[in-house]
């Protein structure tokens, strides 16, 4: 078996296009039948590092950050919901939905990596936020997610108050920003080439086929 293709996905758990991008990438990998030839690692990126613990109403947040009108936001959400449905991922936008602070989620994803559970936990947290109306900064929600993917919740949650674990995540975020990553998802192949955004399945298939053939 030759060396696996390393795929780093820089993303946030509250980024809708990160969920769509991953589901399309997953579909491309499945359709090419190369599941055993790739290795995926999730890298931390906070869309809103200054988000307060109580979060912020999502409509208000998007208006403030991007200047989008309510109509534009509704259209965008409907579009994402439709795409999600095609990919088997549920988006359930609602009026009182709040943007969450995601730093703790990233600390737990770093913990999950050591047990080969990163992708499972990432999808569980994305599903909690987008499909189940849950606050992914809430420790009870995080605990439930850890249990559901088969991780030691107590040990994992202890990392949230561990300065070394928190520093490691901040340091990684800084490294990716220094490499020029300023939007997500950014998908990096073998630390040599990268694509940004939720590309179409066929685009991913083309890139993957070329890289696997090398």
Task: Tell me what you see in this structure.
- One of its GO terms (molecular function) is isomerase activity.
- Keywords: Isomerase.
- Residues 7-208 form the DSBA-like thioredoxin domain.
- Helices cover 53% and strands 12% of the residues.
- By secondary structure, it is an alpha+beta fold.
- The chain has a single domain (9-201), classed as Glutaredoxin, CATH 3.40.30.10.
- It has a 4-stranded mixed β-sheet, sandwiched between helices.
- The longest helix is centred in the middle third of the chain and has 18 residues, at 70-87.
- The two termini are 14 Å apart.
Attribute tags:
214 residues, alpha+beta, Glutaredoxin, 4-stranded mixed beta sheet, two-stranded antiparallel ribbon, 9 helices
Estimate nothing, just give the exact number of structural domains: 1
Major pleated sheet:
4 strands, mixed
For CATH, the homologous superfamily is named as Glutaredoxin
What Rg, in angstroms, do the CA atoms define? 17 Å
Terminus-to-terminus distance: 14 Å
The CATH level-2 architecture is identified as: 3-Layer(aba) Sandwich
Main sheet: strand order? 2-1-5-6
Give the CATH topology: Glutaredoxin
Number of strands: 6
Q: What's the pLDDT, averaged over the residues?
A: 97
Query: What class do helices, strands and sheet pairing give?
Result: alpha+beta
The ordered string of helix (H) and strand (E) elements is: EHEEHHEHHHHHEEH
Secondary structure: helix percent? 40-55%
SS summary, helix count: 9
Unreliable sequence segments? none
Strand content: 5-15%
InterPro entries: DSBA-like_thioredoxin_dom, Thioredoxin-like_sf
Keywords: Isomerase
Pfam families: DSBA
GO molecular function: isomerase activity; oxidoreductase activity
